[in-house]
């Protein structure tokens, strides 16, 4: 859990397109050349050009092969053939019937694009996996005739030629929508729904979308009898029922996870970056890139509890830990995040949101700018690019209020700024919405695209119920003013574990405010933040005293009481009493 311590333009095309004008001819020999027997009769009638484009993410790629009829007569029925030199393996295709025999790939026309008039094009697309080198094929043939029309295609290389989409299997889109949540249904996780429905009163919220947490390697196949990644994607296709649907995954398994706390330490040791890559990110990327799921809008929350810790919780700070020093020195948070982005970003229907802490963590000047710059560094690590980032998320699994209506950061009492109150303590922000919008601008300055969007986890920041103030605090001092009027009822802003008095917040909603792509319920309400006492487990989870209601605190929470609920199970496990309290204190009320 994260702790302590009007968009107008369409996004740039996020796929890398490299053009190869196929200079295919009978002279092409060597690896990759198609053996073509050119019969004089066929050659007389048929002439073609092929334009081959790839979008490659290192272990796989999609290709669009544009066939142009450069002859004078229509081609009635076509089969394209070409060879790969490497171990490229077909996983699926569209815009034609794709097959592979050894190194030779064949694409037969679909019914709807069978006839190619003179000058017309067809552009089938395929998806492949590979290892090693992904050399482009050197020659192509249509109906056994080498495509050597000798003219460059008239289409400009960056604009895909117009094609009629196949009716059933849409290709992955070459450019992403600006806000994947806009106009989309939101996925309901059947496993969370069942847990919510088993609770008295739970059916009032059980149809709400919550995120799916990929919090260990086993989550990809499914923990025990639980649903795995592909089970969720298959279920998402059902729920989509042909309409746009967004499904959000939390990618959460970095080496040395959660270096500043104990409750969500994970399975990978600080130096296990190779396992993170090959056993965690690679299989996730392979599943998400499956063309079967091309119609879904797949969003990801990339690695909470990580990058901000390298700014705020290293030993040069009073709150530093040796574990965070290790992660800063070995670079494995930065490399892990970069690798995840590099693998997931090129997939045409995957949208990455990086964790950006929350206002009670990064809202101070010392933390704000350096974190934005570090995020930009991570987004360029390990072959990633800034454009692989759709946006950022704040407040994941935290309790920061969305909006404080009864005071603002610009208020003062008797000439003293609220920034000097004990609660605000020189922070620049008093709530998540103003923080997310302010941080968005700083991220753009750091180099991210001007159309990035923010997400806010509103699952548990409602702070409703009977203790909710109904007006501003008394203007006796900045402290009476802030404490009397603030909706966030925590004992200290740095408290983060199973907070007593919290309630469900805004329901998930697309484009609720300027610069905000969505409010989401990322932390599934009812799942614990950490055990209130030591509980042995095989998940790598430790016991963090911030989850113990008798704990009197440390430097990160101003040596205050932890404010957590008692009798809590380990993080991620179902905590019925908390679920009930969240419903009771929901705001908006249920
Ligand atoms: C835990 C994860 C869990 C997630 C969602 C985190 O605190 O460490 O294991 O999946 O919360 O409840």
TrEMBL record:
Q: Does the keyword Cytoplasm apply?
A: no
Name the residue ranges with Pro residues bias: 154-173
Q: Which InterPro entries match?
A: Beta_cellobiohydrolase, Beta_cellobiohydrolase_sf, CBD2, CBM2/CBM3_carb-bd_dom_sf, CBM2_carb-bd_dom_sf, Glyco_hydro_6_CS
GO MF annotations, alphabetized: hydrolase activity, hydrolyzing O-glycosyl compounds; polysaccharide binding
EC number of the protein? 3.2.1.-
Q: Which BP terms in the Gene Ontology apply to this protein?
A: cellulose catabolic process
Q: What keywords does the record list, in alphabetical order?
A: Carbohydrate metabolism, Cellulose degradation, Disulfide bond, Glycosidase, Hydrolase, Polysaccharide degradation, Signal
Name the segments for region: Disordered: 147-182
Residue ranges of every copy of the CBM2 domain listed in the record: 41-150
Catalytic site positions: 258, 305, 529
Write out the residues that bind substrate. Answer: 213, 215, 358, 361, 398, 496, 523, 527
The signal peptide, as residue positions, is 1-33
Q: Which Pfam families match?
A: CBM_2, Glyco_hydro_6
Entry-linked Gene3D superfamilies: 1, 4-beta cellobiohydrolase (3.20.20.40), 2.60.40.290
> Its family?
Belongs to the glycosyl hydrolase family 6.
In Swiss-Prot or TrEMBL terms, this protein is called: Glucanase
Species source reads Streptomyces genisteinicus
Q: What is the lineage of its organism?
A: Bacteria, Bacillati, Actinomycetota, Actinomycetes, Kitasatosporales
